[in-house]
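W.,

You were right to be curious about this one. When I first looked at the sequence I had no strong expectations either way, so I just let the prediction run and decided to look at it fresh. Below is the sequence, 178 residues in total, followed by the output.
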Amino acid sequence: LSNRGITSVPTISEYSLLILFTTIGASLLLSSSDLISMYLSIELQSFAVYILATLYRNSESATAAGLKYFLLGGLSSALILLGTALIYSYTGLTQFESIYSLANVPGDLEYTQPLVLGLVLIGIGFLFKVAASPFHNWAPDVYDGVPTIVTSWLTTMPKISIFVFLLELQTGLQGSFE
């Protein structure tokens, strides 16, 4: 590896600790029932993945890929936080069950429109995080600059937890708006 300019090879303990943080963040995301725990768990998962993307510090392509991943992850986190703040500012609620109940009140447009806008912003933020179309243009650059073992983790673990969470969220909201 020293012939390619990579002198600092990460140890196994660095990989396992970061993968453990990603797994804990994904597990907490799937079990979250609150807007605050949702945001904190997605950030716990994301911070570990940002570090994994830049694990090879002496590689210029890994550093550039990690920086791009961090900046776009920060943008998507800001969108999720903006949607969460919008929902909280209009409803005063953070529990998903309470938000579902409020959305179930017929003819109450005072809360429905900001609630839908907040959920759209949260959805866009999550679509950025999973590199879904049309928010996927950053993904090839990041995946190209990161080592293959890290790329395989980046493309599977965070996406699975976010898609399962969005499915749970959509199922609960679908029952509320019917």
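Here's what jumped out at me. Helices lie at 12-30, 35-53, 60-91, 96-103, 109-129, 139-145, 148-154, 157-177. And, maybe more interesting for your project: DSSP finds eight helices and no strands in the chain.

Coffee later to discuss?

I.
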